[in-house]
Amino acid sequence: MTNPDGHAAQSAATLAIVHSMEAALGRKSNSTYEHFHEDFVWRGNFGCGHKAGLEQFRDNWQFPFRAAFNDVVYITEKFIADGEWAACFGSLEATHHGVFMGIAPTNKRIRMPYMDFWKVEDGRIRFNPVFVDFASVLMQLGRDVFAGEGWESFDRGERVAPRLW
Fold first, then answer.
1. How far apart are CA 116 and CA 42, in angstroms?
2. In what order do the strands lie in the sheet with 50-52?
3. What is the mean pLDDT of the chain?
4. Is 142 left (phi over 0), alpha (psi -120 to 50) or beta?
5. Which of 6, 36, 68, 114 is the most exposed place for a label (fewest CB within 10 A)?
6. How far is residue 125 from each of residues 79, 81, 121, 141, 158, measured CA to CA in Å?
7. Is the Cβ–Cβ distance between 132 and 114 less than 8 Å?
8. Distance CA 18, CA 94 (A)
9. Which CATH number is 4-30+37-155's, of 3.10.450.50, 3.40.190.10, 3.40.50.20, 3.30.460.10?
10. Contact assessment for residue 154 and residue 165, using Cβ atoms and an 8 Å cutoff
């Protein structure tokens, strides 16, 4: 059996690293090497991409995000840590001030739901699978990627959900 005190300490250390990284990103720090492992991998859902290494993360996620949105406020609902893993879910609010997915700046305030998972190795983040609700953001900016066929229409009673029988 593993040492519960050791596991709790590792969980707390993992969460402290994640909090430190998020604070640095919130300050728009470009000095993130202290938080990310040299073999860092960031894996997003469709539309977000897969970043192999910190340079790809910065060039193909962090900088394009900053170019599209400003006045970012993170609203994390819950953090959870378990040994070398930590996770959170929440949303961020931001102002659309640059091109995003081909949509010219609207200056609209958007809400972007997300879930983040981090694996910490050697005191730095090694692996970061994320799920970002780009479809929701696009809808807020006037583009329905589901062309009215989203299943929310079932919930609102606008359409009848298909059945097997």
1. 10
2. 50-52, 36-43, 124-132, 109-121, 85-96, 69-82
3. 93
4. left
5. 6
6. 16, 13, 6, 32, 44
7. yes
8. 21
9. 3.10.450.50
10. no
Q: Does the pLDDT value for residue 81 go beyond 80?
A: yes
Whether the CA torsion 25, 31, 34, 39 is positive or negative: it is positive
pLDDT beyond 90 at 115: yes
Mean pLDDT computed over 126-137: 97
| Alpha carbon 59 to its chain's center | 16
Cα-trace Rg, the chain: 18
Tokens encoding 31: 């000095």
* Secondary structure letter of residue 29 according to DSSP: -
The domain limits of the chain are: 4-30+37-155
In terms of Cα–Cα distance, which of 36, 37, 132, 151 is closest to 91? 132
CB 81 within 8 A of CB 54: no
Picking from 135, 132, 136, 130, the residue whose alpha carbon sits closest to that of residue 51 is 130
State the pTM of this model: 0.87
